[in-house]
Design a protein that fits this description.
Layout (H helix, E strand, L loop, with lengths): L1 H37 L25 E2 L8 E7 L6 H12 L4 E4 L1 H6 L1 H9 L3 E4 L12 H19 L5 E2 L8 H11 L2 E3 L13 H11 L5 E5 L3 H16 L3 E2 L2 H6 L55
Parallel strand pairs: 1-6, 2-3, 2-7, 2-8, 3-4, 5-6
Helix pairs in contact: 2-8, 7-8
Length: 313
């Protein structure tokens, strides 16, 4: 009988022993489920400020111009190192007869010698710009010496024409990036270079000067020449006529900059399938994409490389 009484006692204790264990597993499972559900839908923590990408500063205004992108065949002819006492008036006669406007980059010491010539050029609607006082190589000078060259010429132009210039061309094209910035900041000048250079200062003859200009000019070109060389002035009648025959339109440099249009993005050429090379090949035709920016009216090739620091500029 004792054995029989023990068995029921053991049976009643088994559920009591399992209950705490069941509660433990239930709590453990609940914690796991809570952890999984609480992580859903949460946004990851923001990266530290030092790791965030810094915004890219917007580019500032353009300071230097070699040429200008335009939608129509506008060009700007420029003449340096004057005014000359006899040659500049001859050039002004040619321009007046054709109702053309150009930009003169003048030297202060020449203004001092021929103020009446500069006054006539300004009166007839041509643009007058600063080319320094005595044509030194500015990139080898102190800031104060450069400032004196520009200020004296700026004052001389204002005294003769009544207006201060807004453009500057460094002699020989010799100028540093730092100089460009402080000259722009202090004087408000845009720095004007060129993309067509007939090397007329070498006096190769009127025909050569004219042919070089005609060969290299495209829409938006800034053409460099000098009104202090007789051969240059003699080259101008044929040059003007043939440029007009190619439908180019003459404007001042400031007008050309005002006509600027955004350059379209360059198209990515489609990938070419690889093919076996033929036994004999000929020279490939020029890629049409290379000539996409040339004006249809001009039908002229791209300009050859020019020298940016030749004597006489």
């Amino acid at each position: 009988m004792a054995l029989r009484n023990d068995l029921p006692l053991l049976d009643t204790r088994i559920p009591d022993l399992l209950m705490p264990l069941a509660r433990f597993f239930s709590l453990f499972l609940g914690l796991i489920i809570l952890g999984l559900t609480s992580g859903q839908g949460q946004t990851p923590a923001a990266a530290p400020a030092a790791e965030r990408t810094k915004p890219v500063a917007a580019p500032g205004p353009r300071i230097t111009f070699n040429s200008v992108h335009v939608d129509e065949p506008y060009i700007a002819m420029t003449f340096d190192d004057g005014p000359h006492g006899t040659l500049t008036p001859k050039l002004l006669d040619l321009l007046a007869a054709r109702h053309m406007k150009v930009t003169f980059f003048v030297l202060g010491e020449c203004i001092e010698q021929h103020p009446e010539v500069l006054q006539r050029a300004a009166r007839e609607g041509h643009e007058i710009a600063n080319h320094s006082w005595s044509h030194p190589q500015l990139n080898k000078m102190s800031d104060e010496a450069v400032r004196s060259q520009l200020r004296r010429t700026d004052d001389a132009i204002k005294q003769v024409t009544g207006k201060r210039p807004t453009l500057f061309r460094p002699p020989y094209g010799a100028i540093t990036t730092r100089q460009k910035k402080w000259i722009h900041d202090e004087f408000g000048y845009q720095i004007i270079m060129w993309d067509v250079d007939p090397l007329d200062w070498k006096e190769p003859g009127p025909t050569t000067v004219s042919n070089r200009i005609l060969r290299e000019t495209r829409a938006g070109s800034i053409i460099l020449s000098h009104d202090i060389h007789r051969g240059t002035i003699e080259a101008m009648p044929a040059t003007f006529e043939q440029l007009q025959a190619k439908h180019f339109k003459f404007v001042t440099v400031s007008e050309l900059i005002g006509l600027a249009t955004p350059e379209p993005p360059k198209a990515t050429p489609p990938a070419r399938k690889s093919v076996a090379a033929p036994a004999a090949t000929s020279s490939p035709a020029p890629d049409a994409a290379e000539n996409a920016g040339a004006p249809a009216q001009s039908l002229v090739p791209a300009p050859a490389a020019t020298t940016a620091s030749s004597p006489g500029h």
